[in-house]
Amino acid sequence: AYTDDKLKGFDVHLEAFSPKVPLDSTASSAPVIIYEFYVKNTTEDDAEVSLLSSLQNIAGWDCYTPITNQVYNRNYGGNTNSLYTVGSLYGIDMSNVSLKDLDAFNGHVSIMALSQSGDNMSTMLQYSDVKDLWNNFIQFSSLPGQGETGTSKVGQTYCGAINMSRKVPAGSSTTFTFLLGWHFPNRYKDWDPFVSIPNTPMYIGTHYSTVWKTIIDVII
Questions:
Q1: Residue-wise pLDDT tens digits, 107-159
Q2: What's the predicted TM-score (pTM) here?
Q3: HEC letters along the chain
């Protein structure tokens, strides 16, 4: 458990889960994790509470090569983050425009926040240095918007962040909901046992991509 003495007056509890539906392999394969932060204001004063979610755009990463120095990896480059809203969902779509359509590592990742009426939502779509994110957050209690522009340089990617702020009355509780989704449809049979044609990986895809065609389909 994480504790912070500076958070006196607030109880924070997290429940994180992926959909698991007995006897329903399709619903259970949804590529999403749901994070529910339960926040209780135990003080006698109303408070403005902000929770921030951040993620690195990993489109292009080979799942093996170490990621060092924050946003550097030899497989990065051409990464871009964009904002979208669907109803009460407020999210960042992360992709890589330099990859071929059938590249094994071409896909999307996304962080989302489920907003409520009255919430103050802000984002920093593209940043390379976590200090820039943190300085904006602690100085303004919100995020500046776009951040860096254009696609990332060769060997680099971007991170993105969403901030959700909400007034929590004295003695009351509320739930902040964030989601993490992914959509990487190009799975290849690239392991050794029983490979009949050496060095020729076979495309097998993923089950979830036959149900949810895009990252937006995943989250709605």
A1: 999 999 999 999 999 999 999 999 999 998 988 888 999 899 999 999 999 99
A2: 0.90
A3: CCCCHHHCCEEEEEEEECCCCCCCHHHHCCCEEEEEEEEEECCCCCEEEEEEEEEECCCCCCCCCCCECCCECCCCCCEEEEEEEECCEEEEEEEECCCCCCCCCCCEEEEEEECCCCCEEEEEEEECCHHHHHHHHHHHCCCCEEECCCCCCCCECCEEEEEEEEEECCCCEEEEEEEEEEECCCCEECCCCCCCCCCCCEECCCCHHHHCCCHHHHHC
Say if residues 158 and 54 touch (Cβ distance below 8 Å): no
- Residue among 173, 88, 70, 201 at smallest CA distance from 129: 70
